[in-house]
Amino acid sequence: MSTNVIMLGPPGAGKGTQGERFAMGHRIPRISTGDILRDEIHSGSAMGLAAKLVMDRGELVGDQVMIGIVTERLSRPDVANGFVLDGFPRTVTQAQALDGLMDGRDPLIVLDIVVPEAELARRLGSRMICESCGHNADGREISPGVCHFCGGKLTQRPDDNAAVVLERFKVYQKATKPLVDFYRTRPTFRSINGAQSLDRVAADLNAAVEDISNGAGMASGGGKR
Questions:
Q1: Which of 6, 40, 188, 216 satisfies CB 3.0 to 4.6 Å to 48 for a cystine?
Q2: Which residues on adjacent β-strands are paired with residue 83?
Q3: Closest C-alpha to 142, from 133, 151, 134
Q4: What CATH number corresponds to the domain at position 177?
Q5: If you count DSSP H runs as helices and E runs as strands, how many of each does the chain have, helices first?
Q6: What are the tens digits of pLDDT across the range 35-91?
Q7: How many other C-beta atoms are found inside a 10 Å radius of the C-beta of residue 176?
Q8: For the chain, how many structural domains are there in total?
Q9: In this structure, is residue 186 part of a structural domain?
Q10: What is the pTM of this model?
Q11: What is the pLDDT averaged over residues 166-180?
Q12: How many other CB atoms sit within 10 Å of the CB of residue 225?
């Protein structure tokens, strides 16, 4: 049985950090659409340049572009045993497309990381990312300002400044939060308290996935609408 996980939650909830830890622990790929887009931006591709203009304003890249990226990525053989999706879906349209992509696969496990807005604003204001590999700093850095994965320089993401953070919250409330309602009634959905220590959140995520995998949710096909 494959383990197919979606990490939901607002900007700053810890989806990237927790998704990375979960994926490494279960030896499945973490698919970050944000990382894919940033790679395209770094390469200077037409898609990357167009995406940069949108992302720097704190807005979401269009549904069709994102669906295309994920469709291609889920066609690769390394997802046979499962995956962790971070940053997709972000709209109900994308979620409906993902349901179609999951035909013939084991059900989606949907984990919604919940964090109070004041804590999110604090986190985003101090969040750092590696200029070289794109890794989010998570407190394990040995040297200040240096990525513990590759040794690259840590810097603030351009979409984490105060004005853009406020816009991203607005976008989340309008376009992304309805995903919780879309998935909430499925037996493979769980809410996780993200305002805890990294280790406690990771433990709760693992416990939720184990509970879902051993329960009726998986047997019933995940309760897909």
A1: 40
A2: 4
A3: 151
A4: 3.40.50.300
A5: 10, 7
A6: 888 888 888 887 788 888 888 887 778 888 888 889 989 999 999 999 999 989 988
A7: 20
A8: 1
A9: yes
A10: 0.74
A11: 79
A12: 10
Report yes or no on 127 lying in a domain.
no
Asked if residue 142 is part of any domain, the answer here is: no
- Two structure tokens written together for 50: 């167009």
16 in any annotated domain? yes
- pLDDT tier at 211, thresholds 50, 70, 90: very high
Please report, for residues 91, 102, 110, 139, 213, the alpha-carbon distance to residue 182 in angstroms, rounded to integers and kept in the order given: 10, 16, 11, 33, 20
CA-to-CA distance for 142 and 7, rounded, in angstroms? 27
Q: Which domain covers residue 75, as residue numbers? A: 3-116+162-217
Is residue 184 a contact partner of residue 206, using CB atoms and an 8 Å limit? no
Residue 141 exposure: Cα atoms within 13 Å on the Cβ side: 19
Which has the closest alpha carbon to 6: 215, 201, 179, 221? 179
| Model confidence pLDDT, tens digit, residues 84-102 | 999 899 889 999 999 999 9
**In the numeric block, which tokens belong to residue 215?**
């329960």
Residue 192 and residue 113 in contact, taking contact as beta carbons nearer than 8 Å? yes
Cβ-based neighbour number of residue 26 at 10 Å: 17
